[in-house]
Every structure is written in structure tokens, then in C-alpha cells.
Amino acid sequence: MLSITRNVLRPTFTRAFGAPGGIASVHTLPELPYAYNALEPHISEQIMKLHHTKHHQTYVNGLNAAEEAYSKSTSTKEKIVLQSALKFNGGGHINHSLFWKNLSPVSEGGGKLADGPLKEALERDFGSVEEFKKKFNATTAAIQGSGWGWLGFNVATENLEIVTTANQDPLISHTPILGVDIWEHAFYLQYYNVKPDYLAAIWNVINFKEAEKRFLEVAH
């Protein structure tokens, strides 16, 4: 998780607290690289504002609280108990910080995949870009409960693969190239319980330039 945090978040910190275990930096909510209404009509302003300022902020607050409690604790049992809060809130912070960069307004190239290394790799590993989207949507829609759908790079095979994670678990087995939040808070106010409609719409605002940048950082 630490390597993903360094590569994906590169967060800024506003303060630090001292503790017996050392000094821990405080995580902050990253600013969006676009306005809350910039992804309309595909993702509404209301959803973006709530998702960012309420849900992501909650994960940031929870992560800071869990890290502070962990650093101050001298009880091994208590530190074990805190692992679940660290994983849930830390994963939520990592995943959402990546997710915001995954998206881009249509006016700024959102939804457009230009010819290049990423497109070639998708065609190699899935047959075509459209077949990739079809498989990605089917796999992600099939998640029971809440979770994330990912396009990940398998370092061992050097292939792009579709992976899912439950709840707010970060993607550890692969290097994340792009991720889609399938928690209801990401779509319910606009698409209700129709996950396929949300998944079909989000491709219109996927930031493929950012995805290709991540791909080029790990592909050989």
C-alpha cells in the first residue's frame, strides 16, 4: 500500500502530530482538477460535490484518526484492531485520489483515447477497445455490494488485466491504470440502482491521457 500511496497520491500535509511511535503527517483532501459541474451531463454536479467534500473527506478524517491512534498506542492488541480502520480509510483516500484524476471534462479530452501505447495494449490484451469496455463494465457491474473496478497492469506478465476490489481495498496485486468507483454514492442520485447506465456513461469522461501516463510509467 505504501508504494501505491507514494506513486498515486503524493499528498500535501498541513500539520503533524508527535507520538511515541514517531511523527505522522496529516492527510488532506486533494482539490479536484476541474469544477464540480464539469463532468455533466455524465456525472452530475450534485454527485461530484457530495462525493468529494463528504465521502472522500470522511475517509481522510478516518485515516488521520486511525493513524494518530495507532502511533500513540502502546498496545499490540489495539494496533491489530486499528488495522481494519487503516485499510478501509487509507484505501478510500488512495482510491478516490486516483479516481478524480481518472476523470476529465469532455471539453478537455475526456472520453477520447488517441492512438498510442495504451490503445495498442488494450487491443493486444482484449481484442479491441470496445471489447475491453464491454468486459470491464460486465465485471464491475457484477461486484456484489460496494467496490471498485480496475484496469491494472500485471508486472509479472506485462499485460493489462481487469480486476476488482471489495469495499475500499486498494489495488495491490496490479499497478492501477484506471479505476471506477462502484459504491452507490458514486452514482445513485443520478442513475439510481442501474449500474450499467452509470458504467456506460462514465467512459465519456475517462481521462485516457492520465491512464496512458500511468501505463507508460510501468510498461517496458
Describe this structure in words.
The protein has 220 residues and is an alpha+beta fold. It has helices at residues 2-9, 45-72, 76-102, 117-126, 129-141, 188-191, 195-202, 208-218, and strands at 13-19, 22-27, 147-154, 159-166, 175-181. Strands 4-3-5 form a three-stranded antiparallel β-sheet. Strands 1-2 form a two-stranded antiparallel sheet. The chain is globular.
Strand percentage lies at 15-25%
Work out the helicity level. Answer: 40-55%
Instruction: Give me the strand/helix succession.
Output: HEEHHHHEEEHHH
Count of DSSP helices?
8
Give, in spatial order, the strands making up the sheet with the most strands: 4-3-5
Gap between N and C termini: 23 Å
- Sheet with the most strands? 3 strands, antiparallel
Name the overall outline. Answer: globular
Q: Give average pLDDT, whole number.
A: 91
Uncertain ranges = 1-23
Summing up helix and strand content along with how strands pair, one would put the structural category as alpha+beta
What is the number of E strands?
Answer: 5
From the alpha-carbon coordinates, what is the Rg to the nearest angstrom?
18 Å
